[in-house]
Amino acid sequence: MTETIDGARWSREELEGAYQNWYKTINEAASGQASWEEFLALYTDDVVYHDQIQGDLEGRESVRQWASMALDSFPGDQFRFPEIWHAIDETQGLVIAQIKNEMVDPGDGVVAWEPHISVMTYAGEGRFSAQTDAYDVESFLTMIKEWGTRAMKAGFLDAEQRGWYEMVYPETVPDEVAS
């Protein structure tokens, strides 16, 4: 066990266990095997979560609102989060992970993804007090646009999902859509 920046002490095993639980829970929530509430329970009430598009989200309720909008509704509900790698810094109480923002197969056999880095500050008892996600926003949004166009051409999207693309990214809607 080593001392962290705030004087708390956690073992590498505890940090690894908390991360593995976080990783399992985010992927179970993304696939519908668990709820986003279970994911949110992995953060302290006063968590500070930084997303590059949304900025700083302060408190679990702000993270809940963001997760509902960004992860639990279309097109966020089309993502899965395979790990590329992770590292643990027991001196600082940090877990750093590179994760794929991977969209499900849109019906053409091509799985698109963009990476992001998450830096999570451990608070003890299996929970995190801060998370910062860093990713290339332009590449991420381009992936979503291209995925939608492919999904529409393959007939993968329902009318409501196509309507989302017509409203948000009308330039991506193909002239002919498979039905």
Characterization of the model:
This protein is an alpha+beta fold and about 180 residues long. About 35% of the residues lie in helices and about 30% in strands. The chain has helices at about 10-30, 35-40, 60-70, 135-155, 160-170, and strands spanning about 1-5, 10, 45-50, 55-60, 80, 85-90, 95-105, 115-125, 125-135. Strand 3 and strand 4 form a beta hairpin. The chain is elongated. The model is unreliable at about 1-5 (pLDDT under 50).
| Global outline | elongated
Mean pLDDT: 91
| End-to-end distance | 58 Å
- Beta-strand content estimate: 25-35%
Number of β-strand runs: 9
Roughly how many Å is the radius of gyration? Answer: 18 Å
SSE sequence, one letter per element: EEHHEEHEEEEEHH
Helix content: 25-40%
Class inferred from helices and paired strands? alpha+beta
Characterize the main sheet: 7 strands, mixed
Number of helices: 5
Low-confidence stretches: 1-5
Task: Set out the fold topology.
Blueprint: E1 2-3, E2 9-10, H1 12-31, H2 36-40, E3 43-51, E4 55-58, H3 60-70, E5 79-80, E6 83-89, E7 94-103, E8 113-124, E9 127-134, H4 137-153, H5 159-168
Parallel strand pairs: 3-9
Antiparallel strand pairs: 1-2, 3-4, 5-7, 6-7, 7-8, 8-9
Task: Give a quick rundown of the structure.
This protein has 179 residues and is α+β, with helices and mostly antiparallel strands. Helices cover 35% and strands 31% of the residues. The longest helix has 20 residues, at 12-31.
